[in-house]
């Protein structure tokens, strides 16, 4: 078996993933939990027919409030080859997907890259969306240059203390901001088609956490100061204490209307212009997909 020493992400585990797992808990083989037309992404991503979303198993963060914990930390999913993943992309395009939306792809970058190349050679024509937590190594992202059309990174935490406490992610802000600058370098300002569907560009997502408005403000300020005003920001107010969040008293509540309103006001106050707001209507468990291997076989 060919050795596959892995330093793909900032964990830099340096393990041979052909036989061993690192922090993310996955061997090098791609593992997926669902592939379907997702209607609840930002309107310019989901459009009218849905985003062809592929959920990957495993994650390099350990968020205590993860809504997808069944696959991110629970190991649910099946192994597929790069060829099979390319077929899944083709099937999603045939079903009418506006794009291929890779959810938590980071830990499988080399094999996903192979799948994208195979699918493009087979005629895949819709944009590829890279939907990640942004805890990335810039060098790994560079290997995707020219293959990704739209980046959809989170920018979760400003302080290291919070990132370590809730996601076990030291230096999160440092890694994520460098990753976002690299993503922007690759795709540039947003481009939309005549129907308002994004063809190229980046949307930065930020989930407002209860009691952490100061971090939200620092994050918005960083975006304003480091990226052009054309960049889109998705400010999400639907935080819900999923998974282990109830073990943290301060996280065990939804955000208040006051926090939500203040975050939106601040967004405009500091001169940000383009964005989406996702309010608490999208917080319900019914918006979390069933991870049932749909679209894999
Ligand atoms: S992708 Fe997984 S094994 Fe590789 S460095 Fe990151 S956490 Fe470690």
Question: Any overview of this molecule?
Answer:
- This protein is of the alpha/beta class and 297 residues long.
- It has a single domain, classed as TIM Barrel (Alpha-Beta Barrel).
- The protein has helices at 43-46, 69-72, 82-94, 109-121, 138-142, 160-167, 172-187, 213-226, 257-269; strands at 5-6, 15-16, 30-38, 51-56, 78-80, 100-103, 128-132, 150-153, 191-192, 198-207, 232-236, 275-278.
- Strands 3, 4, 5, 6, 7, 8, 9, 10, 11 and 12 form a ten-stranded mixed sheet that branches. A two-stranded antiparallel sheet has the order 1-2.
- α3 (82-94) packs across α4 (109-121) and α8 runs parallel beside α9 (257-269).
- The site of iron/sulfur cluster (SF4) has 14 residues, from loops.
CATH architecture: Alpha-Beta Barrel
Name the CATH class.
Alpha Beta
| CATH topology label | TIM Barrel
Range of strand content: 15-25%
Count of distinct structural domains: 1
| Whole-angstrom Rg | 18 Å
Structural class: alpha/beta
| CATH homolog superfamily | Aldolase class I
* Largest β sheet strand count, sense and barrel closure: 10 strands, mixed
Distance between the termini: 26 Å
Shape label: globular
Number of DSSP E strands: 12
The small molecules bound here are:
iron/sulfur cluster
Give the helix level as a range of percent. 25-40%
Tally the helices: 9
Q: Averaged pLDDT, please? A: 95
Q: Which parts are unreliable, with pLDDT below 50 for 5 consecutive residues or more?
A: none
- Element-by-element helix/strand order: EEEHEHEHEHEHEHHEEHEHE
Domain Radical SAM core: 54-223
Protein name: Radical SAM domain protein
Keywords: Iron, Iron-sulfur, Metal-binding, S-adenosyl-L-methionine
Binding site for [4Fe-4S] cluster: 59, 63, 66
